Amino acid sequence: MQIAETMAIVLPYQFEPESDPESSDEQTAVTATPPQARLLQNVSQWCLCGNCARMPNEAENLCCKEIPKVVRRMQQVPGPPSCMIHHPGFEPNCLNPYTLQNIHNIYSTDYGPLRRRTLEEGYRYTAYRSFVSWCWGYLGRHNRVVIPSCVVLRIRLEFPDQAGRYVCFRPPLH
Fold first, then answer.
1. How far, CA to CA in Å, does 162 sit from each of 63, 120, 153, 158, 170?
2. Rounded CA gap, 102 and 144, in Å?
3. pLDDT in tens, 17-28
4. What is each CA distance from 67 to 21, 74, 117, 138, in whole angstroms?
5. Are 150 and 85 in contact (CB under 8 A)?
6. CA 86 → CA 24, 76, 150, distances in Å?
7. What is the pLDDT of residues 117-141, one digit of tens each?
8. CA distances, 127 to each of 75, 95, 132 (Å)
9. Could you tell me if 31 and 65 are in contact, meaning their C-beta atoms sit under 8 angstroms apart?
10. CB contact at 8 A, 149 and 38
11. Complete DSSP assignment for 18-47
């Protein structure tokens, strides 16, 4: 009896995170066309914001207005912008070199140094990560999301590769 009195009661799932109704993906964005056919179509047939361009990888042919997490972020400002690249938070979070330097320092502390060849490549990589974190939060290891075409193009415009070589979306390796 004495042992039973000193044992703690175990309450399963007591410290599990609760669901957040605001982060639910049940909100649906308007989808113009199934992504499978987009390489064969004119961009105007699937782009809803007017700032997308055809990407070389089929999965990347997505508009910001089709992704619920991005649409939700856009709707958080009065008079939602017509495109994510016009959101007042986009420039400070994804295009400001000083912000990206700080994010890079934090990332390097947690994961080690980035193996990037040029300053622009490092900024692009960090800008993509910043955008994902801003819209989706922390995804965890081996979880990736497709960034909208318009956002990728705007980041590439700000931090171009001199040879025009860019890495396409790659699904995670498990």
1. 26, 9, 15, 12, 22
2. 22
3. 443 444 444 333
4. 17, 11, 31, 17
5. yes
6. 24, 13, 10
7. 788 998 999 999 999 999 999 887 7
8. 21, 7, 9
9. no
10. no
11. PP-GGG-TTS----SS-GGGGGGS-GGGT-
Spatial distance between the Cα atoms of 84 and 63, rounded to a whole number of angstroms? 9
Rg (CA), the chain: 20
Please state, in angstroms and rounded to a whole number, the distance separating the CA atoms of residues 9 and 127: 46
- Helix count and strand count (H, E) for the chain: 6, 0
Tokens encoding 124: 């692009």
Could you give the CA distance from residue 75 to residue 12 in angstroms, rounded to a whole number? 37
